[in-house]
Amino acid sequence: MITKSTRKLALAASLFLAPVSFQSVLAADLGSLTSSISSATEAATSTVDTASKIDINTATADQLSTISGIGTAIAESIVEYREKNGDFSNLTDLTNISGIGSATLAKILPYLTL
Q1: Share of the chain above pLDDT 70, in %
Q2: Distance from C-alpha of 31 to C-alpha of 75, rounded to nearest angstrom
Q3: Which has more confidence, 65 or 33?
Q4: What is the CATH number of the domain that holds 14?
Q5: How many domains does the chain have?
Q6: Which residues pair with 55 in a beta bridge?
Q7: pLDDT reported for residue 47
Q8: Residue 112's beta-bridge partner residues?
Q9: CA-CA distance, 40 to 19, in Å (whole number)?
Q10: pLDDT (tens digit, 9 = 90+) per residue, 27-48?
Q11: pLDDT > 90 fraction of the chain, expressed in percent and rounded
Q12: Is residue 97 predicted with pLDDT exceeding 50?
């Protein structure tokens, strides 16, 4: 169950990254957080050069920590999670890592790839 504060945080992250034309749609549909993050990801990543993105399935902790929003501890947690559970199949799987919530995910998504 999504709490009221989590919904507000998801809405704020989605509205920040989504184009103006999608903001009212995202605001109306908080029930599907994953699709909102996916839409925000597509809008945000269109401005980031694909060659400059970091692959979360092959990156080292040092490489991951160069991204604003990912510190050393979170970078190490990403690598440990990947080693324990295998490659990420979806970028939203990063929310399974302690310290990465919807706001952090929205901030770092434009810089990551699979």
Answers
A1: 55
A2: 29
A3: 65
A4: 1.10.150.280
A5: 1
A6: 113
A7: 46
A8: 54
A9: 8
A10: 555 455 555 566 555 555 444 4
A11: 49
A12: yes
Domain that holds residue 30: 4-113
Which residues, 6+ apart, have CB-to-CB distance to 20 below 8 Å? none
pTM over 0.85: no
What 15-23 contacts at long range (C-beta under 8 Å, 24+ apart), as own/partner pairs, is 16/40, 16/106, 17/41, 17/43, 17/44, 17/106, 17/109, 18/43, 19/43
- Written as six digits, the tokens of 85 are 């559970």
Q: Which helix (H) or strand (E) holds 96?
A: none
- Cβ(45)–Cβ(60) below 8 Å: no
Cβ atoms of 11 and 26 closer than 8 Å: yes
